[in-house]
Amino acid sequence: MINRIVNVVSMFGVIIAAIGVYLTYCSLDSLNKQMTQTHEQLTWQNYNHLNERYSNLMTKLAVAAEEGKTFENLSHENKWVIRQYFDLTSEEYWLYMNNLLPEEMWEHRILPGLKINIKSELISEGFSYWQSQGAFNHPEGFIDLVLSI
């Protein structure tokens, strides 16, 4: 009789442990889904913030282009706008390389934009100027990326 009670209690213990394992699994699965969703939301939020900065810089670059046809003729303020553009692009490149920016945004929006913008003599001269001043060394590979375009 005592053995039977011990067996029943043991069986209940196994059942309770199995239920505990199942509930833990469900909780961890739910947490993982929430973390994945939060990561995706923050990634897109980050991209949107970068996009706002880019839009503001493009407006300033248009003003700079009206000021002078060559980088040398620009005011220091407008030379700095070109520096900010490449600082932003290097940040985006770093985020992309570290999987913190959606790949499709880098491949289909940012990189094609860089390829178009670098064709501007004003912008390419600005890149050369700021690079000669020691800028754009981070992230690794950014200078090579721009020069390869």
Description:
There is one protein chain. The N and C termini lie far apart (84 Å). The model has no long low-confidence stretch (mean pLDDT 88). The relative contact order is 0.09. The chain is mainly α and 149 residues long. The chain contains five helices and no strands. It has one domain.
Question: What is the strand and helix layout of this fold?
Answer:
Layout: H1 2-67, H2 76-97, H3 103-117, H4 121-132, H5 142-147
Helix pairs in contact: 1-2, 2-3, 2-4
Strand segment tally: 0
Give the rounded overall mean pLDDT. 88
* Beta-strand share of residues: under 5%
- What value does the Rg take, in angstroms? 27 Å
How many angstroms does the end-to-end distance come to?
84 Å
Shape summary? rod-shaped
Number of domains: 1
Give the biggest beta sheet.
Answer: none
Q: What portion of residues is helical?
A: over 70%
Low-confidence stretches: none
Q: Order of helices and strands, N to C?
A: HHHHH
Tally of contiguous helical segments:
5
What structural class do helix, strand and pairing data support?
mainly alpha
Structure summarized in a few sentences:
This protein has 149 residues and is an all-alpha fold. The protein contains five helices and no strands. It has one domain.
What key attributes describe this structure?
149 residues; 81% helix; rod-shaped; mainly alpha; 5 helices
